[in-house]
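hey so u asked for the seq, here:
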Amino acid sequence: MPTMFYLLLKYVSLSAAVLAGLYASLLGLLTSPSFQAHVVYLHKIQMTWFKDLDIPESFGFLRNQVTPFTIKSADGEALYAWHILPIGLYRQHESALLAEPAGFVSDFKSRVSFNLLRDDPETRLIIHFHGAAGTVGSGYRVPNYRALSAGQVEKIHVLTFDYRGFGRSKGTPSERGLCSDAVAAVDWAMNVARIPSSRILIFGQSIGTAVSLAVLEHYAFQSPPISFAGSILVAPFADVATLVSTYSVAGTIPILSPVARFPSIFQYLSTFIRDKWLSKDRIARYVRANEANGQKYRLTLIHAEDDWDIPWHHTEIVFWHAVDAAVPGGISYDELERTKSDTKTDLGAAGSVVEWRTINGIIREEIPKTGLHDVIMGNPVVTMAIMRILAAADPVLE
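ran it, structure tokens below
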């Protein structure tokens, strides 16, 4: 019996040593910018299951409802994009759309769908910034596009694209590069498609929320400032350092949460983070800029309680930074939590909602009970958020 015990102890000790060694190797790899990019962006994971992005019909769309094309970034990268027609508008122009060749187009401006986007003064455009991994056609993104336009099926177009290094977009992802790509997409919408910023809604999910906030901040500091109809952030995170301290792959495999228990070690490892994506700071600067300039803004943050990938308390942190920037003199986290407990709308099994209003802006936090990290994108809570913002921006759409 003692021999068996010692053998078992030896086996457990050896296994622990191997796991510790593997984990130490992972930590070492995470200090490499190249390895970090693969972990943060997961851009080499396509998840289109052998489907051709140039054939959007294979993803469930109607013939020529989606037009694949490219947008050029400021540094010359070709960004693969989809323009998605709302179903009601498609129905009105079905014959003309069916008469055109299907597939990727080199000159989008020659297409019926582009003219429908550009020429209707009541067009609304949602620019969609997707999360890590995959492409414009991956996972729950296709149902998301339908949810985005469901509130106004004749008016709401969707523009989505793959950042550099994702899908068919060339290059290597980085924070600076993705911000440049996002600005290129917005510039294309305003200058090529000629959609005024007041008719553009910025939508981001997961890492796309960080990209969205970078875009919002960029345009808020232009001269003159440029504001949009509003923005919706689904499953945002405070910053990469905070995210990796809580993040687990599929909600089960921790990345740096074991090290986060040792602040000095975690702080040291944090110095190696290349792309910091400081969303909580960006949203604060964005709100302050709008408040100072008297610009109207509408922010909606949505985060499911059962999100295994990014814990929903990240949204509480981001919401606090936004509200703190909107309040003259600021507000502490604890004070805001007390205010929220008094003003929160309890929706029972549907979750809860809190709104903070100023003369210039509306900051809304929605915490549904369910929706996971990706499923929520196709849920009615997203459609309602779109309708609410667009109606506030233009009551004619009510």
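Residues 216 and 222 are 10 Å apart (CA to CA). Residues 2-30 form the longest helix (29 residues).
lmk if thats what u needed
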